């Protein structure tokens, strides 16, 4: 054990935050899945606990292995991973497993596990964009030579993710533009991209407002609008916008009502670990709405602590960005940390009804799956950058002595 700890490098505060989130995940997932496990496995309430423990153990192993790899290796494989992710996204879009009118997953043979390709695509994208930003710094202000090579992969990835998962596409695009801003891309170019990207989003909101009739049903109007609204993912998006904008307290979506009840029951200190009652009524209490269960059981204090952990994680990654001597490592640590923290904030905002309902999970806390493992890989890569920073600082100290 001591040998393993001695070989564990990188930012120790980030390691601590990871362990805290993993312990939280184990406790809350066990509580949130108790009733489900009882029904599915004939009283064996510990089944999902063991599964989550296995995912956490595998995740920690992935973090450890990834952080031992020199992060320069990730620059060399970034283009290959990105080129692999694009056909996977296309395949998922047309032939993926359909759940809730969305093709987000492909089923892996042999192990029979679903794999959300957007998780891999996001990781590959920010590795590749970090590589591009580091290589284009001399011409980054030029639209053709600097901006287009950076924004094109972001646009392609977001367009392929959007039909099945608009919220993930928007979060990915926002993170990409934020990284571009930090990477010294011209502000005018970023604003132009925001305007172009806002056109379909504003159109969607406009359709939702124009077709709302007070009962969350399509307005009987001739033309394309009513046809689109009544079918497929566009209908789902429009319905969610209408629910968020127009729904009154007693007319809010079912999951939001149950999440509010959970938060109200939690108060300041919560009802105690394992004492949640809303886990029996709240859809997906172990993934999309796990933050509401955290507040119910651990109160507003527990909810604030989770926010604090993610913010500390982000601050430490910003510290790596400032200390990393090489541009690729700096952009890589910042890009991956931004995507994880922004996803976390989006999930928590949905749980407290600040954002429309989305399908994003709480990183390292929600029940394990492909998202959990790719989150672990992203953190391992960030710690790889941290390990390199530690080595450089140690060499500087040695030289000064």
From TrEMBL:
Signal peptide: none
InterPro entries associated with the record: FtsW/RodA
Membrane-topology descriptor: Multi-pass membrane protein
Transmembrane segments: 12-36, 48-67, 73-96, 150-183, 190-212, 289-314, 326-350, 362-383
Subcellular location: Membrane
Gene Ontology, cellular component aspect: cell division site; plasma membrane
Reactions catalysed, as given in the entry: [GlcNAc-(1->4)-Mur2Ac(oyl-L-Ala-gamma-D-Glu-L-Lys-D-Ala-D-Ala)](n)-di-trans,octa-cis-undecaprenyl diphosphate + beta-D-GlcNAc-(1->4)-Mur2Ac(oyl-L-Ala-gamma-D-Glu-L-Lys-D-Ala-D-Ala)-di-trans,octa-cis-undecaprenyl diphosphate = [GlcNAc-(1->4)-Mur2Ac(oyl-L-Ala-gamma-D-Glu-L-Lys-D-Ala-D-Ala)](n+1)-di-trans,octa-cis-undecaprenyl diphosphate + di-trans,octa-cis-undecaprenyl diphosphate + H(+)
EC number(s) recorded for this UniProt protein: 2.4.99.28
EC main group: transferase
GO biological process: cell division; peptidoglycan biosynthetic process; regulation of cell shape
Gene Ontology molecular function terms on file: lipid-linked peptidoglycan transporter activity; peptidoglycan glycosyltransferase activity
Keywords: Cell cycle, Cell division, Cell shape, Glycosyltransferase, Membrane, Peptidoglycan synthesis, Transferase, Transmembrane, Transmembrane helix
Stated family: Belongs to the SEDS family. FtsW subfamily.
Protein name (Swiss-Prot/TrEMBL): Probable peptidoglycan glycosyltransferase FtsW
Gene source species: Dinghuibacter silviterrae
Phylogenetic classification of the source organism: Bacteria, Pseudomonadati, Bacteroidota, Chitinophagia, Chitinophagales
């Amino acid at each position: 054990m001591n040998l393993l700890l001695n070989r564990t490098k990188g930012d120790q505060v980030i390691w601590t935050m990871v362990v805290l989130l993993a312990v939280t995940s184990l406790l809350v997932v066990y509580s949130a899945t108790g009733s489900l496990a009882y029904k599915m496995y004939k009283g064996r309430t510990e089944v999902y606990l063991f599964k989550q423990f296995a995912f956490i153990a595998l995740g920690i192993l992935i973090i450890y292995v990834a952080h031992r790899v020199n992060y320069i290796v990730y620059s060399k494989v970034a283009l290959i991973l990105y080129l692999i992710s694009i056909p996977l996204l296309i395949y998922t879009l047309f032939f993926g497993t359909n759940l809730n009118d969305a093709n987000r997953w492909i089923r892996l043979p042999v192990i029979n596990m679903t794999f959300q390709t957007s998780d891999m695509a996001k990781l590959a994208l920010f590795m590749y964009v970090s590589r591009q930003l580091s290589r284009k710094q001399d011409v980054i202000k030029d639209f053709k030579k600097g901006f287009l090579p950076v924004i094109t992969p972001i646009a392609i990835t977001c367009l392929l993710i959007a039909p099945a998962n608009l919220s993930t596409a928007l979060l990915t695009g926002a993170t990409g533009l934020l990284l571009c801003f930090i990477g010294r891309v011209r502000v005018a170019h970023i604003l132009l991209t925001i305007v172009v990207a806002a056109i379909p989003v504003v159109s969607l909101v406009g359709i939702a407002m124009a077709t709302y009739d007070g009962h969350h049903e399509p307005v009987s109007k001739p033309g394309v609008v009513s046809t689109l609204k009544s079918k497929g993912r566009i209908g789902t998006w429009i319905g969610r916008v209408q629910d968020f904008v127009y729904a009154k307290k007693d007319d809010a979506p079912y999951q939001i009502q149950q999440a509010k009840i959970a938060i109200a029951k939690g108060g300041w200190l919560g009802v105690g670990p394992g004492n949640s009652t809303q886990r029996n009524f709240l859809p997906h209490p172990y993934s999309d709405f796990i933050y509401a269960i955290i507040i119910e059981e651990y109160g507003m204090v527990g909810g604030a602590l989770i926010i604090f952990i993610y913010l500390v994680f982000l601050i430490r990654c910003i510290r790596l960005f400032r200390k990393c001597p090489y541009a690729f490592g700096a952009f890589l640590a910042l890009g991956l940390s931004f995507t994880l923290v922004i996803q976390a904030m989006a999930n928590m905002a949905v749980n407290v009804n600040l954002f429309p309902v989305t399908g994003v999970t709480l990183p390292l806390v929600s029940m394990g799956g492909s998202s959990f493992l790719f989150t672990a890989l992203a953190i391992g890569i960030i710690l790889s950058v941290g390990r390199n920073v530690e080595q450089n600082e140690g060499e500087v100290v040695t030289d000064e002595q």
